[in-house]
Amino acid sequence: MVTVALLATMAPHLGAQTLREAIPAKMRIPDHPRVKRYAAYYASTAHRPWLREVLHCVQFYADHILEQLDQRGMPAELIFLPVIESSYVSTATSPAGAVGLWQLMPVTARLNGLDTDGAVDERHDFWKATEAALNILRVNYEQLDSWELALAAYNAGFGRVRRAVRSSGVDGFWELRERGYLPRETSEYVPRYYGLLLALRSLPEEEWPLLDRRQRWRRLAVPGGTEMERLGRLAGVPAGILRRANAELGDGLTPAGRDREGYRIKVPDAYYDRISAVLAPAIEASRQQVRMPYVQVPQGG
């Protein structure tokens, strides 16, 4: 994807590491026929280009998501869960109404503090949706004491998995699966995720994109009515990056009146100062309660 490739060139890669180096293969994967079948599927010649493309999509969000996983003491390889949820497309919407990288349903999103109104759907917000999804997974793990059951509960719902455990007297995913206590989709969900991990582990080092820790995402408060594409052009940000990073803004405009300090967009750290400089006149005008529907800069600015 062009925007991902451009983002990868924003800072020098001195001292950079690949995603493979940044994401240690520590999750224990069971030797199960279904896992092997999914691994063969994802590692096949037909799917190899897709797998490489998905890794570049992961690269776009990786620094932030890995940081969030590390802060919670969760396995780094959970960064790959959105691959099977949405192929790492933040605008993805399922037929059932799940939305975003982590495919959150409306009720789940609202229970986890995300706004899903017409102007802004924060399930598309990779920053907030990641926080919500990881909190769900962490609670699942704390209550069920197994990452396999935590993943199953992420797919089927915590209550459904807990009821399956209680009614069966079985607390292991694979036995629940074999005895038919889980929905079919959930029975395939965990093997599919493990199969994906095995396929990724089989990729040669040179096929993994770089993760440069200086390519961080930061949040910046901007006035309502700020247009992402225009702001990006004025600040010299590669085309499409701000729009993609702030996909919750369906029309590409920040909403007015949501926060006195402005709406907090996500911006690449390498462009933070440039964007701040472009926004300075609008922010000052906003403080003086002057209406500025679009970012304005002097000619030649």
What does this structure look like?
This protein has a two-stranded antiparallel sheet. Strands 3-4 form a two-stranded antiparallel ribbon. Residues 1-14 and 297-301 have low confidence and may be disordered. The protein is globular. The two termini are 30 Å apart. It has two domains: 16-210, Lysozyme (Orthogonal Bundle), CATH 1.10.530; 216-287, no CATH class. It contains 14 helices and four strands. Helix 8 packs across helix 9 and helix 8 crosses helix 11. It is mainly alpha-helical and 301 residues long.
List the helices and strands and how they pair.
Blueprint: H1 2-8, E1 17-18, H2 19-22, H3 33-43, H4 48-72, H5 81-86, H6 106-111, H7 126-144, H8 147-156, H9 158-168, H10 173-178, H11 184-201, E2 210-211, E3 217-222, H12 228-235, H13 241-245, E4 263-268, H14 272-287
Helix pairs in contact: 1-4, 3-11, 4-7, 7-8, 8-9, 8-11, 12-14
Briefly characterize the structure.
The chain is mainly alpha-helical and 301 residues long.
CATH architecture of the largest domain: Orthogonal Bundle
Sheet with the most strands: spatial strand order: 1-2
* Biggest sheet architecture: 2 strands, antiparallel
Mean pLDDT: 89
Total beta strand runs: 4
CATH topology title of the largest domain: Lysozyme
Distance between the termini: 30 Å
CATH class of the largest domain: Mainly Alpha
Helix content: 40-55%
How many individual helices? 14
| SSE ordering | HEHHHHHHHHHHEEHHEH
Tell me the Rg in angstroms. 21 Å
Which spans have pLDDT < 50 for at least 5 consecutive residues?
A: 1-14, 297-301
Shape: globular
Quickly count the domains.
Answer: 2
Structural class: mainly alpha
Beta-strand portion reads 5-15%
